[in-house]
Design a protein that fits this description.
mainly beta; eight-stranded antiparallel barrel; 2 helices
């Protein structure tokens, strides 16, 4: 992550330093196909990691499977759509989604033939929209920058990696059932972004992004309730706050334009 952030940052600085060298020349392949996106094109960007893992496994003895995406609350997947108003200008929208449900069965202490259940469930989602401008750096390498506004909803995660709500169901006595909910964080933010991408084929690129964002976040209380009527246990109070942060996209992005 640190190496990716450093690389993206350095290349982004280089992008701005060469903006004055912008050219209107249309790059084409040897077969005459346009390399960069054009006005009216639609772009689709997804996490490149599954594809890179798939390609890497082609050269080892560990076997291989088709690229897959998790879409879990612990590791939500993002999808970015772009519409190019001009060759160097596009509106963009990013969708974030992940959902998880895990059921753990354990023999009841009172009757090992019956199973107690612990159910973990969580959902993460988000949306952002904005505009970006792009400039050619050199040949197939291009930089871009822009701004966006967005919203994210992320579930609670404890020190052991357990995410979201927890429901315990006793196989013998329903009065022992418990439920833990809350602790989720909702954030509204604005962000500036810079990025670089390399077009290794006609209108297909791989790249990364760097963000500087600020926003308002609210975290709900984390509460445990008991079926036997005992007083609720609050393990985390509700909190609000504002802040600024910088971050890389977390993974390389593979983009298709058509």
């Amino acid at each position: 992550m640190k190496k990716l952030t450093l690389i993206v940052t350095l290349l982004s600085i280089l992008t701005f330093s060469v903006y004055s060298q912008e050219t209107t020349e249309v790059l084409k392949t040897k077969k005459g196909r346009v390399i960069m996106p054009e006005a009216g094109d639609i772009g689709l960007s997804i996490d490149a990691t599954p594809f890179l893992s798939y390609a890497g496994n082609l050269f080892n003895q560990n076997g291989n499977t088709a690229p897959t995406f998790n879409f879990t609350a612990q590791d939500p997947t993002s999808l970015t759509l772009k519409y190019f108003l001009k060759q160097d200008m596009a509106v963009r929208a990013t969708f974030l989604l992940g959902s998880s449900r895990n059921v753990v069965n354990e023999p009841s202490i009172s009757d090992p033939k019956k199973l107690d259940k612990t159910i973990y469930s969580a959902t993460a989602f988000g949306f952002s929209g904005g505009i970006e401008y792009s400039r050619s750096i050199k040949n197939r390498l291009r930089g871009y920058y822009g701004g966006l506004v967005g919203f994210e909803y992320l579930p609670y995660t404890d020190d052991l990696g357990n995410t979201g709500n927890v429901k315990y169901i006793d196989a013998i006595n329903v009065k022992n059932d418990t439920k833990i909910i809350g602790g989720n964080t909702s954030t509204i933010y604005i962000a500036g972004l810079v990025g670089v991408e390399y077009f290794f084929a006609s209108k297909i690129s791989i790249g990364g992004e760097f963000y500087f964002s600020g926003g308002f976040g609210s975290t709900s209380e984390r509460r445990q309730t008991f079926s036997n009527g005992s007083e609720d246990n609050i393990s985390q109070e509700k909190s609000n706050g504002m802040g600024f942060m910088t971050s890389a996209s977390g993974a390389l992005k593979l983009s298709f334009h058509f």
